[in-house]
Amino acid sequence: MVDTISYEAAVEVARAYLRDKAALPPGYSDSLCTYIEMHEHLAAHGYRVHYRSRQMNNLLNRVSALEDGESRGLLSALVVRKKDGKPGRDFAQLARDMYGRRGSDDDIWFAEVERIRLEAHG
């Protein structure tokens, strides 16, 4: 992913994937995805973004910025680490700094996931 067009296309692929995840039935265990799964999904669409890279963080931050700009929850909350099932360590701080979210790291994460699910299921 070098040029802006490819980057924005990858952002939209990630965004659509996370919206599909959010739309799964409530309680469905696959409504979250790991960074590795996101990497694999992007790779299947021709975008090489390593799951532990700054590029992946930037891409997910862009997805959240677009969603917040449309007054929706931060979709990046659905992307979690495989080892503990929680979002990346920068998620809550980003939510505080960029989007005014308040509370503990877990409270912010739970609230975003709940908001995303409510939005998806009306």
Could you please describe the fold and organization of this structure?
This protein is 58% helix and 3% strand. With 122 residues, the protein is mainly alpha-helical. It has one domain. The protein has a two-stranded parallel ribbon with strand order 1-2. α4 (91-99) crosses α5 (105-121).
Which SSEs are present, and which pair or pack?
Blueprint: H1 4-22, E1 33-34, H2 35-44, H3 54-69, E2 79-80, H4 91-99, H5 105-121
Strand order of the largest sheet: 1-2
Q: Quick check: average pLDDT? A: 91
Percentage of residues assigned to helices: 55-70%
Radius of gyration: 13 Å
Count of individual domains:
1
**Counting H and I runs of at least 4 residues, what is the number of helices?**
5
Summarize the structure.
The protein is mainly alpha-helical and 122 residues long. Helices cover 58% and strands 3% of the residues.
Overview features:
single chain, 122 residues
